[in-house]
Design a protein that fits this description.
By secondary structure, this protein is mainly α. It has a domain at about 55-180. It has helices spanning about 1-15, 25-40, 50-65, 70-75, 85, 95-115, 120-130, 135-160, 160-180, 180-195, 200-205, 220-225, 240-265, 280-290, 295-310, and strands at about 20-25, 45-50, 215, 220. The strands form 2 sheets. A two-stranded parallel ribbon has the order 1-2. Strands 3-4 form a two-stranded antiparallel ribbon. The radius of gyration is 22 Å and the shape is globular.
Length: about 300
């Protein structure tokens, strides 16, 4: 991690930038923070950010933990496969789509039967329903409200809204504590406090939406590198030798560029290479719209697609 931070700092200096913003998942975030705390004079211009995609995966896992044995898994399994992996936070973003569709169906009758013009009106109705039954309160507090937070968090990235990002992450924190995600609970608080104390220059850039990367719409920076920088190379399982890992880390960007050039040579103009994340593709956007219909229709579409894949 020290090598990665030093290399990032070196590249920042070469390009004439003042600060280096380093984004990673929680495991690397913890290590990077300890390196910076141990050598505060070595990386005075480094700013650590917690990856939004991995944070959302952990948040979905928190909801899955709290909703265990509630019947949620059985409801989702009517449309989606691999539910045992989805609720713990894996199989992203299928799990996000599944939770959103469940909440849409739960709220459909309320929205159709009640004139609702503001989000506050819907929240008031949900609070009133939750006061009548403990089961309803469970589904409102542990599923519906977290899905609202989840969609707020996604919206913050898509619309490059930095204040909304911080607000959504703040609302996530109680669920990390309740589900026993202790590392996100601990380091999430530090992340929020550090983001509130950003240098003025960095804060101005974040307020302009430069905290996200994009192929087409805004997406989390840790999701961006999954289809570019980290697409064909990972360090897990290759070796335990520090020097080899150092060589791998320092040469990965060169290998990524070589792989891209070779693909262009093989495919001509590179038309067969996917340069965007599948969540940004038109097919996935259309799928999202189609699955908002009746659950029977969604189930039929899912079974039909499964049959075509098998054939």
């Amino acid at each position: 991690m020290m090598t990665a931070l030093a290399q990032a700092q070196h590249l920042t200096q070469q390009t004439g930038q003042e600060f280096v913003v380093f984004t990673c998942d929680l495991q690397l975030y913890r290590v990077a923070l300890h390196v910076m705390w141990t050598y505060p004079d070595r990386f005075p211009n480094a700013i650590m950010r917690l990856g939004g995609m991995h944070s959302l995966m952990s948040f979905v896992g928190s909801v899955g933990t709290l909703m265990a044995e509630s019947g949620l898994a059985e409801v989702i399994s009517a449309v989606f496969g691999g539910v045992p992996k989805m609720l713990p936070g894996k199989k992203f973003p299928q799990n996000v789509r599944a939770l959103r569709l469940v909440v849409e169906e739960v709220l459909r009758s309320i929205i159709e039967q009640t004139p609702i013009t503001r989000k506050h009106d819907l929240k008031s109705i949900l609070e009133e329903l939750a006061s009548r039954s403990k089961t309803t309160k469970l589904w409102v507090d542990i599923l519906i409200k977290p899905v609202f937070i989840m969609m707020m968090f996604i919206r913050a990235e898509r619309e490059e809204d930095w204040p909304l990002h911080l607000e959504a992450f703040t609302l996530m924190m109680p669920y990390f504590y309740a589900a026993g995600h202790v590392h996100y609970a601990r380091y999430g608080l530090f992340y929020l406090r550090s983001m509130e104390a950003l240098p003025t220059k960095v804060l101005d850039l974040f307020m302009k939406g430069e905290h996200v990367l994009r192929h087409i719409p805004g997406i989390w920076s840790d999701m961006y590198i999954e289809t570019t920088f980290m697409r064909y190379g990972h360090g897990i399982g290759i070796t335990l030798k520090p020097e080899t890992l150092k060589t791998w880390a320092l040469s990965l960007h060169l290998c990524s560029k070589l792989e891209s050039n070779l693909s262009e040579m093989v495919d001509g103009d590179g038309g067969n290479v996917q340069i965007i994340h599948k969540e940004e593709a038109q097919a996935r956007i259309s799928s999202n719209k189609g699955q908002r219909g009746h659950p029977t229709q969604a189930r039929a579409e899912h079974q039909s697609s499964g049959s075509s894949e098998s054939s």
